[in-house]
Design a protein that fits this description.
The protein has a domain at 4-113 and 211-262: Nucleotidyltransferase, domain 5, CATH 3.30.420.590. It is 31% helix and 25% strand. It is built from 8 helices and 17 strands. Helix 3 runs antiparallel to helix 6 (201-211) and helix 4 runs antiparallel to helix 5 (177-198).
Length: 272
């Protein structure tokens, strides 16, 4: 196995509420256009999903919008950029802004994500309407249940300048791009979960091997834990946030705080 193991600050004991995983899909492993504002060293977090497993085995999950502004690290910044400074900084950003302590961390880069999905034979997803986004290499020309290859699933979760077809014309949905990105991330994750739960041992081995050099892991994650999560009824919600000014930035609001509480997340974490 070629998995990269990292430290996320210090050994976190399992909290009273159970284990908390942070699953991250990064934009590493793909070529960015020269001169693109995204052409920076390091990887940014495209998809972030917190998963809580309590002592009774109950599972809840929430998708964090990548444009959420994080605090407590010396300067405000969108959470997607926290990963540029490494997994520990990203985990500390979750702690300082959401109050959630992460003790399990799993990151997969874009190339590994596509390879793993292809090794699983693709993922089945319901597409509400034809959707396209040339900037993300996304082009799904029909609606309904579809089997997406890894490259199409990746394009869907990375899209933020999409257009949908209403039967007569293409309509931009760019103003809701960040929200759609978070929603697509949860939908694709759930589709992968279903695919994993039905996969044979040989298929699982192939998927893990395909993605192993694209995985970054912390907190002593065991493969059996991931299998148990795949077999659970995981239905991630999208964290409620509010616009912060006229740009992309979003802020955690009271609804989002209540949402975390209702999902069973312990929000008492502080960065020391």
């Amino acid at each position: 196995m070629r998995v990269t193991w990292v430290d996320i600050g210090h050994d976190r004991e399992r909290s009273l509420s159970g284990h908390t995983y942070l699953f991250v899909g990064s934009d590493g492993g793909i070529e960015r256009p020269s001169g693109d504002e995204q052409d920076t060293e390091g990887s940014r977090a495209d998809v972030l999903i917190l998963v809580q497993v309590n002592h009774e085995g109950g599972v809840t999950a929430v998708s964090i919008p990548r444009d959420l502004v994080v605090t407590g690290l010396g300067r405000p910044a969108r959470i997607t950029l926290s990963l540029l400074e490494g997994p520990q900084t990203l985990v500390e950003s979750v702690c300082s802004t959401l109050g959630v302590s992460v003790d399990r961390y799993v990151e997969i880069d874009a190339a590994g994500f596509a390879a793993a999905v292809n090794a699983l034979g693709g993922v089945s997803l319901h597409i509400a309407a034809p959707i396209r986004d040339p900037a993300a290499s996304l082009s799904l020309d029909s609606a309904g249940e579809q089997l997406l290859a890894g490259e199409d699933a990746l394009a869907l979760v990375r899209s933020r300048h999409a257009e949908v077809y209403d039967g007569q014309t293409w309509i931009s949905i760019e103003d809701q791009g960040a929200t759609d990105r978070a929603r697509h991330g949860t939908e694709v994750l759930d589709a992968i979960r279903r695919q994993l739960s039905d996969a044979s041992s040989l298929t699982l081995l192939s998927a893990v091997w395909s993605a192993s050099d694209a995985l970054t892991v912390a907190g002593g994650v065991h493969p059996e834990e991931l299998r148990e999560l795949a077999e659970s009824s995981l239905a991630p919600e999208v964290l409620a946030v509010s616009p912060l000014g006229a740009g992309l930035a979003k802020a955690l609001d009271d609804e989002g705080r209540r949402q975390l509480h209702n999902l069973g997340f312990d929000t008492g974490c502080t960065v020391t």
